[in-house]
Amino acid sequence: MTGIPHLGFIVAAYAVAVVVILGMIAAVWWDYRDLLARLARLESERRGPRR
Amino acid sequence: MPNLANPTLFLAVARRLLPWLWALTVALFAIGLAMSFNAPPDYQQGETVKIMYLHVPAAWLSTFIYGVMTLAALGTLVWRHPLADAAQKAAAPLGAGFTFICLVTGSLWGKPMWGTYWVWDARLTSVLVLFIIYLGLIALWRSIEEPARAARAVAILTLVGAVDLPIIKFSVDWWNTLHQPASVFRIGGPTIAPSLLWPLLVMALAFTVLFLTLHVMAIRNEILRRRLARLTMIAAAQGDVVALSTP
Questions:
Q1: N or C end of chain B: smaller count of CB under 10 Å?
Q2: What 3-state DSSP class applies to B42?
């Protein structure tokens, strides 16, 4: 391992930031995909044959 | 200037804008991280100063986002802007996320530099209070079913919580704290050496553009959520069989 003092704290800080930022991006993206899918399903059910 | 209060127009503008915002975000992070890792060590902190390139931008965003939410709250209560509550609702989880990064990276810097992860001094405590306010606002949105009532309640609580912003900013001047005083945005100019300041400014810009990108995406989601709710009610009124409560 390198001789950089407090390397573990530096790596931990970057790891936390990456995980939280990627988590926020994923949450917003998945919410978008979910909403589009539900809107599409609603549209298809409205256009489908009625009994 | 186009009328972005029109949700349909907002969606069209967002569709065109988002690829450019993402490209700018990636470019700024690439430049900012390269500059950060090539910056010299601080004469006191050594390489631990690299944590500052995350901590300071996250701290800046934690208060900036609350400022955006405060303006949106005024937009809801005073000007009754149709997208103000959507902007506020979309910003709260992002504000909580960046405040969490600020608190954790600050603790991870504090242990090797101060000898402790946490002290109950005015700056740290007031930022923790801000994080709790963010969580409270998110919980309030979810606890009130009727959207207009939820928007008003959250807007009022947001305005009340805004009193924490000057406390955070001036806590290091008003009280004797372990946290150092302002060293970038201060009268008389920054006290940081340019070789450390420039990477910090580029990272702050990268974080800010990332927030703007995510905020536009999240507002778009809120507009789609409203459209889904409206269409669901129309379908229910027409007697269609829909099951939209679950994905």
A1: N
A2: strand
Least CB–CB distance from A25: residue in B214, B227, B241: B214
Burial of B237 (0-12, 13-18, 19+ CB in 10 A): exposed
Cβ distance of B235 and A36 shorter than 8 Å: no
- Is there a domain that residue B239 lies in? no
User: B227 lies in a domain?
Assistant: no
Q: Looking at per-residue confidence, does A1 or B168 come out higher?
A: B168
pLDDT in tens, B82-99: 889 999 999 999 999 999
Host domain of residue B91: 7-222
- pTM for this model (two decimals): 0.90
Residue-wise pLDDT for B95-108, tens only, equals 999 999 999 999 99
Euclidean distance between CA atoms B147 and B233, whole angstroms:
14
Q: Kindly determine whether residue A16 and residue B210, on different chains, have CB atoms separated by under 8 Å.
A: no
Report if residue B82 sits inside a domain. yes
Chain B CB contacts of A27 under 8 Å are 93
Structural domain contains residue B175: yes
What one-letter code names the amino acid at B14? Answer: A
Complex ipTM value: 0.89
**Contact flag A32-B46 (C-beta cutoff 8 Å):** no
